[in-house]
């Protein structure tokens, strides 16, 4: 059974320095991302593209979306498999190729370190990553590979 979900995001450019976009170097790439009922996110472009390094950029947010979607899917799949997760940390990395006036991501690699309770099955914990990958809404929506290189740690507590 299909269910349609909608997500509203408002983006407001705040980078007009008084002359608009009358020159490539004359405007800021700063903007505000607003989702109703949630804290605002300060956005910009990557510093390579004249952005503010202290603000979130679309590339960071894409990698973060893939990482968090996989984590949330994984936690569900682990629970279904009877695996008790006590910690989850990911160091995800995206690779983007700039070409002409545009570019594209060529891959994202997720590197989650998952700590499971001692009475959980490490094989099931590892297998839950594959199920999570197939369930992840964001990974299913991109046109580049999303690889997962998980490490399972059994808690000594």
From TrEMBL:
The record's annotation in Gene3D superfamilies points to: 3.30.300.20
Q: Which domain of life is it from?
A: Bacteria
PANTHER family named in the record:
OSMC_OHR FAMILY PROTEIN, OSMOTICALLY INDUCIBLE FAMILY PROTEIN
Recorded protein name is OsmC family protein
- Species for this entry: Rhodanobacter geophilus
């Amino acid at each position: 059974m299909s269910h349609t979900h909608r997500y509203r995001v408002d983006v407001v450019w705040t980078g007009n320095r008084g002359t608009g976009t009358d020159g490539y170097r004359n405007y800021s790439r700063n903007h505000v991302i607003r989702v109703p009922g949630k804290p605002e996110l300060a956005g910009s472009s990557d510093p390579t593209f004249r952005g503010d390094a202290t603000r979130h950029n679309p590339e960071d947010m894409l990698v973060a979306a893939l990482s968090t979607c996989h984590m949330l899917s994984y936690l569900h799949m682990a629970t279904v498999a009877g695996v008790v997760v006590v910690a989850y940390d990911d160091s995800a990395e995206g690779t983007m190729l700039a070409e002409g006036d545009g570019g594209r991501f060529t891959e994202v690699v997720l590197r989650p370190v998952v700590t499971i309770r001692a009475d959980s099955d490490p094989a099931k914990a590892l297998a839950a990553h594959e199920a999570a990958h197939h369930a992840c809404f964001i990974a299913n929506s991109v046109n580049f590979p999303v690889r997962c290189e998980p490490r399972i740690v059994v808690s000594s507590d």
